[in-house]
Amino acid sequence: MPSSFCVFKYFFEHRYRHYQRAGDCDLSWISKIQVNQPAVLRRAEQIQARRMVKKEWQAAWLLKAVTFIDLTTLSGDDTSSNVQRLCYKAKYPIREDLLKALNVHDKGLTTAAVCVYPARVCDAVKALKAAGSTIPVASVATGFPAGQTHLKTRLEEIRLAVEDGATEIDVVINRTLVLTGQWEALYDEIRQFRKACGEAHLKTILATGELGSLTNVYKASMIAMMAGSDFIKTSTGKETVNATFPVAIVMLRAIRDFFWKTGNKIGFKPAGGIRSAKDSLAWLSLIKEELGDEWLTPELFRIGASTLLSDIERQIYHHVTGRYAAYHDLPMS
Amino acid sequence: MAATHAQRSTREIFTTLEYGPVPESHACALAWLDTQDRHLGHYVNGKWLKPEHRNSVPCRDPITGENLASCPQAQAEDVAAAVEAARTAWENWSGLPGASRAQYLTRLAKMIQKHQRLLWTLESLVTGRAVREVRDRDIPLAQQLLQWHAVQAYTQEETLAGWEPMGVIGLILSPTFSFLEMMWRICPALAVGCTVVVLVPPGSPTPLLLAQLAGELGSFPGILNVINGPASLGPILASQPGVQKVTFCGAVEGGLRLLIQESVWDETMRRLQERMARLRGGRGLDGAVDMGARGAAAHDLAQRYVREAQSQGAQVFQAGDVPSVSPFFPPTLVSDLPPASPCTQAEVPWPVVVASPFRTAKEALAVANGTPRGGSASVWSERLGQALELGYGLRVGTVWINAHGLRHPEVPTGGCKESGSSWHGGPDGLYEYLRPSGTPARLPSLSENLNYDTFGLAVPLTLPSGPEIGPSPAAPYGLFIGGRFQAPGARSSRCIQDSKGNLQAYVAEGGAKDIRGAVEAAHQAAPGWVSQPPGARASLLWALASALERRESAFTSALERHGVELKTAKVEVELSARRLRAWGARAQAQGHLLQVAELRGPVLRLREPLGVLAIVCPDEWPLLAFASLLAAALAHGNAVVLVPSGVCPIPALEVCQDMATLLPAGLVNVVTGDRDHLTRCLALHQDVQALWYFGSAQGSQFVEWASAGNLKPVWVNRGRPRAWDQEAQGAGPELGLRAARTKALWLPMGD
């Protein structure tokens, strides 16, 4: 009974959200926007220095950060063995004895998702099933990372990944459309991605490092949300400039504006370059400051990262034991 | 036990994801206070001075009220000792090559770097300000200030040739100051070769620590002396022999006024309130708070203001995560305050922001300029054209476009109107502590005999005194106001005698009503003159110079009648024309661009006119001094009210005849009459924006006293004649500096 209730609830919510989003593309929401870049830079600078957490707060925040991670491997040399290892690490992100010492071992702490290339989705689904885990598998798609393939193949890529069992699809947008100002065409493309995803969540990667200006970042964010994205994501991790605070502030303000206009909460995922535990704390406080506590849940906030988790584990180790961990003290992912 | 508590709370925090305390240890601040046995003294001549039998005042933690140390209140003899130390040090310090002073300032910057934790914890502990603000902004800026001024000292011989350090500078700090404000003033003073005596309100140990750091560099004790005492010691400090200048240093940033265009009012208020709700307040020494507290007095002030605003019908919005006990006060947004209510006129206290709507940019400018304050302002707009227009139009010292609160040693900061007319930082800051080489030192004694109530009050009566043997054609008669000669309000005249004591002519006897009319006329002409491009101003000055040369014989004969030799008279006319041309040419090279490292984009250093400038010309060099002062004032875009030479006003009136045809009406107004009386009228006029006085020592003293009413900048000669025919004194850079005020316009860029 409880499980069917859950399913119904999920279904209902999902449908409901879908219905809400199927709005038209309202270009008036972006036409007047002009982002004040110097002010954004200043805010970005301040926010990193203004909010620190120490001791128990730091440990708790770091553990929370683990639950936001989309544990990612996106390399040419990925095989089923390292994907399997990654999935296992997603299920057991922090050493059990450390969790026990902090009395959070019963919280079912896992990462938010595992993120792989489309061809590795099968491996990931299989490995997670074997580990008895319900962690969702996310797949990048649509000609990741450049997006410079035909629309037809990009759409087919989404469908295949969903077929293979991915429940979250990270698509890249067509930067050409942004840079040439074809906002309606961009909207149409993302609508098609949305449709191809079916029930799977759509995370739209804006590749902000290649959009030219913060104003374009805001506009692309708005278009992506209007077209039905569940998440907007900063970057592929393959551009030269990845997740930066100024870009994040602009995207978060767009999310807030969209929420104020429609009542829909859209998620945010920074990705690329977030490697240290300290970085992750800054990202958490940025979300808390700009959007509030209600966004600090895996449904609305993810961090795309591959090496971040091991640094967090080291910090937790240090917090619990008072010593810095040796390389071999912590299991590899 | 503690361990289990910690574990349980980690579990709790995992759910709530709240912020925790980030206490900054202030052990080193306390340890430093312990080195003085919690009993601070004054720091004079490189060592602690702890005189006995002084009242002592406690230095308290403004948040807990804990007594941290005690500070002795200085008495007159302590002030004298400090000034004596500074005076002795000055003899050596001012004579050093700039490079040596540069080296010393660099070492002091290093010293601050080495002890920065002590500095920031002490400052945050005793002021209650957020440690983050002190650590991340004030300390680096203090070091930058020292380093930038070290560079200025190094190049001083080259770039500041013709100027010399004033001497001992007295600096009086207000009870709520930040140590950074002190740095803005002592750095340029020390760099150019002055020495400083700082009078700090008791219970502020940071300046003492700075003085100790400077003193421990060893080489030059006595260049920076700090004494604790109430501001009532100010006059004693000012009257010490050797003190050349006293500067005041106001409070740290107060509350703000926000003007929001009606069309974006709702959206802006919503975003503002959203942001305010996320502000965190708490103990200053917590590393994760946005705002600290500034003591119980500041809390009460804010509370009183907010209650009053509420009673006058205002909406009050308070938010943020701030402890609800005194001295903490939440960030407060006041809106819907009726424009005529007393709160609208009053100064807004920290941390209150008063928002009011406006319809057009023009209206916003009128509202912003309609206050007696003129420190700084920021303009937020995505339309660059509009933002620039507002930036140029605001009558303040600093304007930030799409930014707020940026400061840099290279950019002068100052103000106008009641925010004071002195400058810190940049080239303007250096000149505050310099005087043209060869200017005699200021004597501290003020005349006790001067009666401010009666100075220049009565006008001596003039009766007909013999036949008029004037030149032919007769000199023009009347006051030159609004572009034409007018009869004086008093309808009476005064006689002007030639060098032989014969009656030369009658000139109009101007009075208070005439001054009022002249100032009004000048105000009407001022906007038109300001908007003239420098080239147009130059060509008018050149035309005036030509007119002067054309009528050379008339001028020389007028001068000759006053006993000037023909040769000298010719030189005077020729020089006068040359001055008009020279200032006309200089009008075209005003202001410059500064490049600040941290800022992407330029800072414009604008030189803006003072507005309506009143000039009381000296008796000597009746034509040359008149022309020199007039030319400098006009070239910088001012509208002018002049009182010409008292003994020989005829040449000035002759020039008026030419100006009547050449210059816009009302730009230059010349009022003849009793100098003391006219000076009194001008000094007490609140709408005269600056006053230059060249006359008696008594008159100078009166001008300084009376001008305090609207804090207009004054320039007085204290009864000393100037060599107007010399380039340095008659046309030197000092005139240019005095004839305009600086505005820093910050233009951050980026898309």
Task: Describe, in plain words, how this protein is organized in 3D.
The complex is a heterodimer of chains A (about 325) and B (about 750). By secondary structure, chain A is an alpha/beta fold. In chain A, about 50% of the residues lie in helices and about 10% in strands. Chain A is built from 14 helices and 8 strands. Chain A has helices at about 1-20, 30, 35-50, 55-65, 80-90, 95-100, 120-130, 150-165, 175-180, 185-195, 215-225, 245-260, 275-290, 310-320; strands at about 70, 115, 135-140, 170, 200-205, 230-235, 265-270, 305. Chain A has an 8-stranded parallel sheet with strand order 7-6-5-4-3-2-1-8. In chain A, helix 5 (about 80-90) crosses helix 7, helix 10 (about 185-195) packs across helix 11 (about 215-225) and helix 11 (about 215-225) runs parallel beside helix 12. The longest helix of chain A is centred in the N-terminal third of the chain and has 20 residues, at about 1-20. By secondary structure, chain B is an alpha/beta fold. Chain B has a 5-stranded mixed sheet. The longest helix of chain B has 24 residues, at about 130-155. Chain B has 26 helices and 28 strands. Mean pLDDT of chain B is about 90; it is low at about 1-5. The interface of A and B includes residues 55, 292 and 296 of A.
